[in-house]
């Protein structure tokens, strides 16, 4: 079974807010022969978000999102991708106005989030493209006294994800042409 590798770039929005969590990482996809089905392994790098006013840091947080299941999906007859991945999130560090609020990795989602992803028509596995989705983020636990504040700000429905899949050339193989 051949494998298609992508660089994954995009962002999460938090509860219909203007705050974006940048996403970067990789996806290794394995299409099933003679089928429109595929599975894949998603790996995301830690992300840091911050807000400053007049050059002073109001807050910053580092988030690690980990795929807890393979990405599974299918492509329909119009070339639309429908996929799902299950993820966990950990806030490994958070500071507000210079004070450490969270550290050590105990602040994590209480359950997995199921993230549906889809593309528009004409998606090509070889050329990559954009996947989008909306999902519900489970409540966080283990954040100490800031747990209720974290949950008020980020848990619940209305979270969105946008991921651009950019084909990566393998040694000796040319990269696929860029997606349109």
Describe the largest sheet. 12 strands, antiparallel
Number of helices: 1
Q: Under the CATH scheme, which architecture would be assigned?
A: Beta Barrel
Distance between the termini: 26 Å
Helix content: under 10%
Judged by helices, strands and strand pairing, the structural class is mainly beta
Give the amount of beta strand, in percent: over 45%
CATH class: Mainly Beta
Question: Can you describe this structure?
Answer:
- With 180 residues, the chain is mainly beta.
- It has one domain (4-167): Porin (Beta Barrel), CATH 2.40.160.
- Helix content is 4%, strand content 61%.
- The chain is built from one helix and twelve strands.
- The protein has one helix at 147-154, and strands spanning 4-13, 20-31, 37-44, 47-53, 56-67, 71-75, 81-96, 99-109, 113-118, 129-137, 140-141, 156-167.
- Strands 1, 2, 3, 4, 5, 6, 7, 8, 9, 10, 11 and 12 form a twelve-stranded antiparallel sheet that branches.
- A hairpin with a 2-residue loop joins strand 4 (47-53) and strand 5 (56-67).
- The longest helix has 8 residues, at 147-154.
- 22% of the residues are buried.
- The model is unreliable at 171-180 (pLDDT under 50).
């Amino acid at each position: 079974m051949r494998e298609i590798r992508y660089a994954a770039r995009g962002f999460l929005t938090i509860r219909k807010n203007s705050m974006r969590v940048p996403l970067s990482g990789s996806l290794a996809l394995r299409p099933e022969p003679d089928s429109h089905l595929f599975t894949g392994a998603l790996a995301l790098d830690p992300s840091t978000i911050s807000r400053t006013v007049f050059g002073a840091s109001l807050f910053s947080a580092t988030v690690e999102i980990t795929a807890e299941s393979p990405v599974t999906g299918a492509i329909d007859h119009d070339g639309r991708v429908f996929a799902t991945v299950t993820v966990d999130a950990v806030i490994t560090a958070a500071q507000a106005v210079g004070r450490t609020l969270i550290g050590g990795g105990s602040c994590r989602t209480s359950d997995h989030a199921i993230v549906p992803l889809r593309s528009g028509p004409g998606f090509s596995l070889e050329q990559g493209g954009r996947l989008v989705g909306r999902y519900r983020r489970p409540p966080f636990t283990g954040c100490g006294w800031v747990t209720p504040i974290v949950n008020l700000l980020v848990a619940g429905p209305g979270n969105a994800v946008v991921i651009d899949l950019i084909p990566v050339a393998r040694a000796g193989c040319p990269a696929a042409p860029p997606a349109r």
